[in-house]
Automatic annotation (TrEMBL):
<keyword id="KW-0547">Nucleotide-binding</keyword>
<dbReference type="InterPro" id="IPR032823">
    <property type="entry name" value="BCA_ABC_TP_C"/>
</dbReference>
<dbReference type="InterPro" id="IPR051120">
    <property type="entry name" value="ABC_AA/LPS_Transport"/>
</dbReference>
<protein>
    <submittedName>
        <fullName>ABC transporter ATP-binding protein</fullName>
    </submittedName>
</protein>
<dbReference type="InterPro" id="IPR027417">
    <property type="entry name" value="P-loop_NTPase"/>
</dbReference>
<keyword id="KW-0813">Transport</keyword>
<dbReference type="GO" id="GO:0005524">
    <property type="term" value="F:ATP binding"/>
</dbReference>
<dbReference type="InterPro" id="IPR003593">
    <property type="entry name" value="AAA+_ATPase"/>
</dbReference>
<dbReference type="GO" id="GO:0005886">
    <property type="term" value="C:plasma membrane"/>
</dbReference>
<dbReference type="Pfam" id="PF00005">
    <property type="entry name" value="ABC_tran"/>
</dbReference>
<dbReference type="InterPro" id="IPR017871">
    <property type="entry name" value="ABC_transporter-like_CS"/>
</dbReference>
<dbReference type="Pfam" id="PF12399">
    <property type="entry name" value="BCA_ABC_TP_C"/>
</dbReference>
<dbReference type="InterPro" id="IPR003439">
    <property type="entry name" value="ABC_transporter-like_ATP-bd"/>
</dbReference>
<feature type="domain" description="ABC transporter">
    <location>
        <begin position="5"/>
        <end position="246"/>
    </location>
</feature>
<dbReference type="GO" id="GO:0016887">
    <property type="term" value="F:ATP hydrolysis activity"/>
</dbReference>
<keyword id="KW-0067">ATP-binding</keyword>
Amino acid sequence: MTALLEVRNLTKSFGGLKVTNHVDLTLEPGARMALIGPNGAGKTTLVNLITGALAASGGSVRLMGEDVSALPEPVRAARGLIRTFQVTRLFGSMTVAENLRIGAIHRQRRSYAILRRTAVEQALDEAVARVLAQLRLTDRADTPVARLAYGEQRLVELGIALVMEPRVLLLDEPAAGVPQSESHIIMDAIDDLPEDLGVVFIEHDMDLVFRFATEIVVLVSGAVICTGTPSEIAANEEVRRVYFGEAAH
C-alpha cells in the first residue's frame, strides 16, 4: 500500500541556523500522527514545509507516491494536502454555511467548470450539507461565525478543511484557545474523522495526544529524537527528560 505522505531528509536553514534537521516521516492511510515537542522545536515550521507554505532547503515530500516538493502550496492543497492553523482564519460576518461554501468552491473550481450552473449549485449545497452534518453544525448553518463560541469557530475551520476533501489533514493545535468546557467539541470532531484519512496534528494537550494518536513523533531543535506508539513514548526516559522536564530514573 502506498503511503499517503512520505517526508524524506527534509531540512530548512536560515543562514547558519538549521530549524528543520533531516526529518523523515511516513503517514499511512487512517494514521493519526501527533507531533510534539517543546516550544521552538520546529513543529509548525515542519508543517509549513510539508504544505509548501515554506520552501525547503533540502529533502522531499511525496503525496500518495508523487513527489510534490517543487509544487506551490495551492497545488498541493488541490491534490489533497490540507491544513488548519493555530488561530482561526474565518469570515466572522458570514454564516457557517457561507464559510464552508468558500472552501467547497475552492476545492471544486476546476471540475465545476464543465457543469451547468444548476448542477454546480446543487453540488456545492450537497458538499456543505454533508460536512455540516458530519460536524453536527447543521443547526448553526445560518449563524454568523462571529456569534459562535470559540470552540465552535475552531469546528468551522475544521469543516472548511473537510469540505476541501483532504487525503492528508494537518491540524496545527486544533484545541488552541478553546476553553476546557468546550474542548469536547474538538475531541468529538477528531474522533469522527473519516477512517481512511491520514491526520498529522500538532498539540500541546497531552490528553488529546494520547487519546487520538496512533503514532507520536517527538521533535527537539528541529530534529526527530524518537518515534513510537503512545505507550512507547510515555515510557521513553529521554522524552520524559527533554519534553516533560522530568529527571531520568
